[in-house]
């Protein structure tokens, strides 16, 4: 994962933990159900499986990934 992608993830996850907001000016953000480990990134009829990595933010564990293709952050809280 590139540094820019990591910065995007960090920004989005910190905003969510601190404010509860998933709004972002640069990327789309999708909050998945709790304890998801993967998701399908769909563009039109094409889809691909995205595995979520674990991040510790504000004392909480969040699984997340960023799709450069669709410019979307997907994340799921870990119970």
Mean pLDDT: 95
In percent terms, what proportion of residues is strand? 35-45%
Number of strands: 6
Distance separating the two termini: 25 Å
Profile the largest sheet.
4 strands, mixed
**What is the H/E order?**
HEEEEEE
Could you say which structural class the secondary elements and strand pairing correspond to? Answer: alpha+beta
| Strands in their spatial order, largest beta sheet | 1-6-5-4
How large is the count of helical segments? Answer: 1
Concise summary:
The protein has 79 residues and is of the alpha+beta class.
Describe the secondary-structure layout:
Blueprint: H1 3-19, E1 28-31, E2 38-43, E3 46-51, E4 53-57, E5 60-67, E6 72-77
Parallel strand pairs: 1-6
Antiparallel strand pairs: 2-3, 4-5, 5-6
Q: What do you see in this structure?
A:
22% of the residues lie in helices and 44% in strands. By secondary structure, it is of the alpha+beta class. The chain has one domain (3-77). It has a four-stranded mixed β-sheet with strand order 1-6-5-4, with helices on one face. Strands 2-3 form a two-stranded antiparallel ribbon. It is globular, with a radius of gyration of 12 Å. The model has no long low-confidence stretch (mean pLDDT 95).
Descriptive terms for the model:
79 residues, alpha+beta, two-stranded antiparallel sheet, 6 strands, 44% strand
């Amino acid at each position: 994962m590139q540094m820019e992608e990591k910065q995007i993830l960090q920004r989005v996850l910190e905003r969510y933990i601190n404010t509860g907001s998933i709004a972002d000016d640069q990327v789309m953000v999708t909050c998945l159900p709790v304890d998801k480990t993967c998701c399908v990134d769909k563009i039109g009829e094409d889809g691909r499986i995205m595995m979520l990595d674990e991040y510790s933010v504000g004392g909480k564990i969040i699984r997340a990934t960023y799709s450069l293709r669709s410019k979307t952050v997907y994340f799921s809280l870990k119970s």
